[in-house]
Amino acid sequence: MIAQQLPVLQIVIPLMAAPLCMFMRDHFWTWVLAVAISWLCLPMSIGLLLQVLDQGVIVYELGGWAAPWGIEYRIDKLNAFVLVIVSAIASVVMPYAKATVDKEIPRDRAYLFYAMMLLCMTGLLGITITGDAFNLFVFLEISSLSSYVLISMGRDQRGLTAAYRYLILGTLGATFYIIGVGMMYMMTGSLNIADLATLIPAVAETRTIQAALAFLTVGLCLKLALFPLHMWLPNAYTYAPSAVTVFLAATATKVSVYALIRVIFTIFGGVDVLDTLQVRDLLMLLAIAGMFAGSAVAIYQVNIKRMLAYSSVAQLGYMVLGISMANASGVTAGIVHLFNHALTKGGMFMAMGCIMYVIGSVRLGDMAGLGKRMPITMAAFVAGGFSLIGVPLTVGFISKWYLIQGALEKGWWPVAVLIVLSSLLAVIYIWRVVEVAYFQSPPEGSEAVTEAPMSMIVPMLILIGASYYYGIDATTTLDVARSAAEVLTGGAN
Fold first, then answer.
1. Half-sphere exposure of 297 (CA within 13 A, CB side)
2. Burial, 475: exposed, middle or buried (Cβ in 10 Å; 0-12, 13-18, 19+)?
3. More confidently predicted of 452 and 207
4. 20 to 30 A Cα–Cα from 346, which one of 21, 92, 384, 411?
5. What is the pLDDT of residues 219-258, one digit of tens each?
6. Nearest residue to 254 via CA among 278, 281, 227, 225
């Protein structure tokens, strides 16, 4: 009986826990509650994925109202996979968060931090699970509003400015999205995503629907930080508290990429918008530009969190490039890279959190000799760097292999060459950190520096270890991503 209620429990449990944190107002017990809720959501999302793999699409009607009149949660292989990503990252970040929150956030505001984390998690899970276009907007706003608060909560006042910029651009993105939803409703009279997929082809030639697609695409590209709509992301990641950076970098942009996939391949799936409305070339050009611009700017950063933030802009370019190919291999690469990048970048930002905890800085110049003083943390960072580059046996290699395969299947060999070249740029910015950490002498008086607490080290090693485990044995993730991509693309090559 409980198994049938998993879709709604996935949302209701963290949503109810957030106000409970506000009533408890105790920094320790709110952390315990946040950990318990995240650990409860992970087996539920895994259970949903196993159900989908075994039984096919799950449809859950809220209040017993049938779609399109009622709101439904519709779970297929794609969003079941994304649910696992969000809940898995949350379940690793919550234990990690306590030490960083104690150090970076005033004690009397810690309960508010955990309430906002649970709300953000609720919003991201809701975006992923809902089968209603307007409901998606509601959850988008829940996750965004809590993100603005989380980014501003650190002791660095620049976090306030970063949160404000994100608020302005995030609001623009959400506004564009809801305008697009309104236009679709005007032409079809429906907000249900599965229903829209059947109704859109009949009115696809109208300017209203074409304008709706433009608004939806721009709005979601702002949310996922596709170049050149990424201007909110570097400061948000740089000045947010360490645990917030880890969580948002590993989940928020990935869920927005999922929403873009849902718009292009589900809502407009019967129209083939990438070809008929010439969306493909635009997405491909912006993705490739992002791959190079993000990596090139990352090379010149002296703040390593900012360097990793620009690296994320480049990695999001790989995901969108896979989507623009619209063939099974390309979309498989885009979907599996959601998971792979979440592991790698989450682990690398955790390493930065450990360094921030110990030396109070993540600037390159302050990391001299850290390879000897914090050997586990720096080894984890370098191991994550190999995955960003795409070295074999890492998850980054799996993503790029399938992306190159998708490009060659389309006959786009110049794009395949550009994928390899952009990957090589990652060697430069990772090497800059290696050079300082391993080949420069530590400053005098720094001998006392040791590793961060085990509560931070263990989650970091879990994510970095997983990025190698799923690079060596990628069968599970690739099977799910491949089967989801084949459904979305109709098995197109």
1. 19
2. exposed
3. 207
4. 21
5. 988 888 888 888 888 888 888 888 889 998 888 888 888 9
6. 225
DSSP 446-470: -TT--PPPHHHHHHHHHHHHHHHHH
Q: Which residues contact 35 (CB under 8 A, 6 or more apart)?
A: 91, 94, 95
Tokens matching residue 94: 């919550």
Q: 107: closest CA among 98, 119, 116, 115? A: 98
Cα torsion angle, 314, 317, 319, 325, sign: negative
Phi, psi at 49, each rounded to 5°: -60, -45
For residue 264 the two structure tokens come to: 């292009």
Give the model confidence (pLDDT) of 168-177 as tens digits: 888 888 899 9
349 CB neighbour count, 10 Å cutoff = 32
Question: With contact defined as beta carbons under 8 Å apart, do 130 and 196 qualify?
Answer: no
Q: How far, CA to CA in Å, does 274 sit from each of 179, 183, 242, 339?
A: 21, 19, 38, 24
Rounded to the nearest 10°, the torsion over CA 161, 165, 168, 173 is -150
d(CA 72, CA 284): 33
Cα–Cα distance measured from residue 127 to residue 143, given in angstroms and rounded to the nearest whole number? 9
Chain mean position to CA 244: 12
Nearby residues of 296 by Cβ (< 8 Å), 6 or more positions away: 425
Structure tokens at 72: 């439904």
Torsion of CA 156, 435, 308, 412, to 10 degrees: 160
Query: Which uninterrupted H or E stretch holds 60?
Result: strand 58-61
